[in-house]
Amino acid sequence: MPAVVVLVVVLGIFALAYRFYSAYLAERVYALDDSLTTPAHEFEDGVDYVPTNKHVLFGHHFTSVAGAAPIVGPAIAVFWGWGPALLWIVLGTVFGAGVHDFGSLVVSARHKAQNMGTLTESVISPRSRTMFLIIQFFLLTLVNAVFAVVIGILLVANPEAVIPIFVEIPLAIFIGQYIYRTKTSALVPSIVGVLGLYALIGVGQAFPIDIIGIAEPLGMSSRTLWIVILFIYTAIASRIPVWVLLQPRDYINSHQLFIALGVIFLGLAIGLDSMQGPLVNTQVPADSPNWFPFLFVTIACGAISGFHTLVASGTTSRQLDRDTDARYVGYMGSLGEGSLALGSVLAVTAGVTAAGIDLSYSSMYPDFTTASDGAVGYFVSGIAGFASHLGVPISLGTVFAAVVVVSFAATSLDTGVRLQRYIIQEVAGNAGFRPLARNLTLATAVAVAIPLALALAPGGGQTGYAFGRLWVLFGTTNQLTAGLALTVIAVWVTRNGRGALAQIVPLVFLLVMTTWALILNLQGFISEGDWVLGPIDAVILGLALWLIVEAAITMRRVLAERGAPVAGAEGGRR
Question: Measuring CA to CA, which residue among 271, 289, 270 is closest to residue 281?
């Protein structure tokens, strides 16, 4: 099938979803109201609470959620055929992620920008707050470990990308200072920043950075040293006010994302590449995981992702300027991530067929392990293939693609460590451990040390846990968190006298798929003697089942009491 047909159909569905379905959610389900004062204005402090133009905030939110996961997950899932992967991306984005991301942002903004874990106390029950926070802690640990390993692998494989990636940091700080002090629009400075970043690709090709000479005397591999360097960097970056580095780099990366999507879509239109591989793969090896339920946890970001609720309720809600901006930032952001997932599928099925790229479906997807290990490399090669249709040499296109992927993953890593610090401080506060709750340095050190230890844990061969065991558990925990967040949103919507069908349908599906996957994962971890991820899986499964019961009891009570006055205030419309 011509890949351009797939492209047009999926983007058309996304456009219709934003025009009609997001409008329905905004008016009839979430009841957006600009007369409400958002937390960004109520608690403005110039650090975390900063009223932000919706386009700038979209850039932050979009690039924070669009890390490596919407690239890796779909690239792996094509193992089961590109048809099931695309079907889940479309349905999951429109009816899952759009509802989930949009709702998480709205509910958090109506509750003084509390994160979703904290919200469970007032929406579901006090016990559920601690349980959800602990699940979020595990999710962020897995997210930060996964993204750090992904970046480490890419920097080792593409040393030409090192200079552009690291020079982007001072470049973004300069742009952030300029925008903040001159109060000018971020559009032109950030475009200049993108152009400067891409100009550095040539410098990176001329001076590739290979750190093996430093790593070996320290008794490390290059990948391990890169992971350590990344966590040292994030320990610093997560302490810096958002307007200094996070916002300007996110806005630069949002342009990068659109450029990358432009390369995919325009290159595809010019090259007229066809989809390679089966619509549904009926020749999977007998020992392969079944796509029920594992397709729905392998593709998390790009369909629906619990990490998004952490971003939406953890940082984005603290920067929301107007209540109605939530539709654009939340729902459009999910469509953007769905478009990136679409681009990933197209890259590994059509881009890799371009001249100069010698990859076939049979060599890429003979078994699930090969599919998992090679996912990022397949995407990078596919982007280089699309870029070659635009006259870009394969070598230059490869570095460009690596820079894009590392930039996205690094942004999510920055945000993830910041969010993990918030959760650690909150859990410590609930437990009465004041030194950890109040000491930012100590909380940051814990937020960095735990995922660092997991990222460096042995297992899974050269690619570590990231594309094997760790990826599977990450995806399962991620989707479970999304289902639990939808539960909170559904209870809140019902309590406010509006229909919650939009939340209930995807949350039931997700909770069934993720609980099923957690049980299968646990069986596998036990049989293989994995005493690192096995206990984590067991704890997450136990907490999830408990929280599901709590939510079901609360929903039943809310339905019975529907229409009764609700005690308490939240700084705006309930």
Answer: 289
- Taking the C-alpha atoms of residue 129 and residue 420, their distance in angstroms, rounded to an integer, is 15
Element (H, E) at 177: helix 162-182
What pTM did the predictor assign?
A: 0.88
DSSP letters, 507-521, are HHHHHHHHHHHHHHH
215 CB neighbour count, 10 Å cutoff: 18
Place of tokens 């492209």: 7
Given a contact cutoff of 8 angstroms between Cβ atoms, the answer to whether 427 and 137 are in contact is: yes
Contacts of 188 by beta carbon, 8 Å cutoff, 6+ apart: none
Q: Which helix (H) or strand (E) holds 466?
A: none
Rounded distance between C-alpha atoms, residue 311 and residue 67, angstroms: 12
**Helical (H) or strand (E) element with 84:** helix 82-91
Measure the CA–CA gap between 469 and 223, rounded to whole angstroms. 18
Using CA atoms, how far apart are residues 528 and 521, in angstroms rounded to an integer? 11
Q: What pLDDT is stored for residue 469 in this prediction?
A: 66
Q: Where are the chain's structural domains?
A: 3-17+35-560
Tokens of 56: 């700038």
Residue segments in the chain with a per-residue pLDDT below the cut of 70: 458-469, 562-574
Residues 6+ apart with CB under 8 A from 8: none
Q: What is the dihedral of CA 32, 101, 66, 366, to 10 degrees?
A: -150
- The answer, yes or no, to whether the previous bond of 293 is cis (omega within 30 of 0) is yes
Predicted local confidence at residue 458, as pLDDT: 66
Helix axes 116-123, 126-157, angle to 10 degrees: 160
Two structure tokens written together for 341: 């997932």
Q: Does domain 3-17+35-560 have CATH number 1.20.1740.10?
A: yes
Alpha-carbon radius of gyration of the chain: 22
pLDDT in tens, 17-66: 999 999 999 999 999 999 999 999 999 998 789 999 998 888 778 877 87
Q: How far is the C-alpha of 293 from the C-alpha of 518, rounded, in Å?
A: 10
pLDDT at 186: 78
How many other CB atoms are found less than 10 A from the CB of residue 64?
30
- Within 10 angstroms of residue 531's Cβ, the number of other Cβ atoms is 10
Q: Concatenated DSSP letters for 4-41?
A: HHHHHHHHHHHHHIIIIIHHHIIIIIS---TTSPPHHH
Smallest CA-to-CA distance from 489 within 426, 555, 562 is with 555
Instruction: Taking the CA atoms of 300, 327, 256 and 238 in sequence, report the sign of the dihedral they define.
Output: negative
Other beta carbons less than 10 A from residue 81's beta carbon: 23
pLDDT of residue 126: 82
Evaluated on CA atoms 466, 470, 474, 476, the torsion sign reads: positive
Residue with tokens 């000018």: 184
- CA–CA distance, 345 with 354 (Å, rounded to integer): 15
The predicted pLDDT at position 459 comes to 56
